[in-house]
Amino acid sequence: MNSVKFLQGPLLAAVALLLLVAPAEAVDWEPPQEKKAIEKEIKRTVKEWDQLSGNHDLVPQRRRRELIRRLGYMPHKKSIKALRRILRKEKDTRARINTMVAIVRIGEVKDVEDVYKFCLKEIKPAAPYYKDVYPCYLGYALTYTPLDDVKDWIVEKPLEHSNHVIRLGAIEAIGLLKHKLAVPRLIEIHDRAAAKTGREGTTIRYESLRALGRIGGEQSEALLLTAGKDKDWRIRLAVCETLLDHARSEEALKMMRALFKEDSQILREACAQAVGRNKVEALFPELVLTMREGNLRAKSAAYESLKLVTGQDFKLAPDVWEKWWRDKKKGKLTDEGKFAKGERISVSTYYNFKIFSDHVLFVVDISGSMKWLEAPPQRIDVAKKQLVNVVRSLDPKTNFNLMTFASDMHTWNKQGGVPATKENIDKALVWIDKRFLPRGGTNTHGAIMEALYNNPKVDTVYFLSDGLPSSGSMEVQEEIIVALRDANRFRKVVFNTIALVFGKSRIEKAHKYEDPQEMGAFMERIAEVTGGQSVVIDRPFFDLDD
Which of 243, 252, 249 is nearest to 214 (CA)? Predict the structure, then answer.
């Protein structure tokens, strides 16, 4: 039985809202409207939170997060008071972040400032940035304010703070809030960062430009047009991603046409995504050209954007798209293209993902839990069979590599990947047979960093795991997401994730790490923050005998 559930990632990855950590909206609860009913519900909600506050198992933790979310939908001084107390007492990282969001959602400036002060106290100057998890999520929380005076306060306080993490979060928040009064300050911050060298200054410039692009206006457009000619491709990337969000001038279209011709496939893909998101028909020819000349990821982005711009679907057939465009301009559209044969590019599939990538890495969890189920088939057997099948089906032009992880990581090809020739496929299959021996913990963070840093040509990762992080230098999910987002800010590697969660473990100690809902949500966040897709496999529907 096929029980795959796809969770689509957005076209633009790595924005603050993709770091969503709140639980799913409850379908059986609506916030009360009358004052007495609100006070009664607040009292009941706080009482239940107090009863669960000492229990750190996954299900009670998830319930506490939901209770905190509810408080954030009941604007009342008693809600604010309760949330402030929870922020001090709560031990679960995600619940605390949910509390920050809840306070910002219903609070005034003084309440939001308390969240800000809490985050400042959590900064650890001697620790790696990802250990400052609450400051890293401050910008995300600030995007929930509905109040203009809070937006003004963000410009005056967090946006001017000397701490890089605080300022970066404020830049992204103010851009997502589209606060026009922030434009002069963002331009000043960008110009000061332009005088600096190193990644920190480049990151500030990049995010400032993205924020200005989201806000729009003449000043923003003027700076983006200048930045489009910058010698640093990362600065030009910000222009590709956001110039079209508001700008439609001839100068803006001319700039985008030039960026579409860049050698960098990351820039071409970003341009294609921006055109589709904003449905800019004037750049139709550039999309068709990208479908002809881009790498597989850029071709796929152009195809998806062509569908958004036109409402048509002529598959990956640039000749048909071009003919349709010529006919449209002549005013004599036909359905001829719809009867064209299927995709002009043959691609392999893996767990129903189509592999639109020239440089792909398959990462598979081989921790002990992959062979802990009470009844067959074991997860390791399903994972092995699917990996063998996809490796055998790869196009010879595709460069691929393999990696397994448990407590430690092991990579097949130390050079970062090879073409999928018959000789290389045979060698890979031998390696799979030797490596797929389950044991050890689940070092998710280590596997992600290994995939990014030791595979410099890879642009797409297929990441399979069956459990929550249980080993390595980092097990807190929110810290892992922060570290991934920062490491991947300019790499733009897409992680498509497979949560293999079918079956019940017979090992008692595994229960802490085998909550299918928690696991699926974590893998979804990994995919979301990199612009990928996620799939949850909750039943062993694969036939292991075929």
Answer: 243
Structure token pair of residue 111? 């309440």
Q: pTM for the complete prediction?
A: 0.91
468-518 pLDDT, tens digit each: 999 998 999 999 999 999 999 999 999 999 999 988 777 655 555 567 888
The Cβ of residue 208 has, within 10 Å, a number of other Cβ atoms equal to 30
Is-cis flag, bond preceding 377, omega within 30?
Answer: yes
d(CA 83, CA 72): 8
For tokens 């963002």, the residue is: 186
Question: Measured between alpha carbons, how far is 508 from 62 in angstroms, rounded to an integer?
Answer: 20
Tens digits of residue pLDDT in 51-87: 999 888 888 988 999 999 999 999 999 999 999 999 9
Return the bridge partners of 411, or none: 403
Q: Which residue has the tokens 């107090």?
A: 50
- Average pLDDT score, the chain: 90
Cα 87 off chain centre by: 26
Helix 250-260 to helix 233-242 angle, to the nearest 10 degrees?
130
Residue 149: φ, ψ to 5°: -70, -30
In single-letter form, the type of residue at position 239 comes to V
**Token digits for 290?**
């990208």
Q: Kindly provide the b/e burial profile for residues 106-125, where b requires at least 16 CB atoms within 10 angstroms of the residue's own CB.
A: bbebebbebbbebbeeebee
The CA distance from 396 to 507, in Å, is 42
Max Cα-Cα span within the chain: 74
Contact between 275 and 12 (Cβ < 8 Å): no
Taking a C-beta distance cutoff of 8 angstroms, is the pair 455, 488 a contact?
A: no
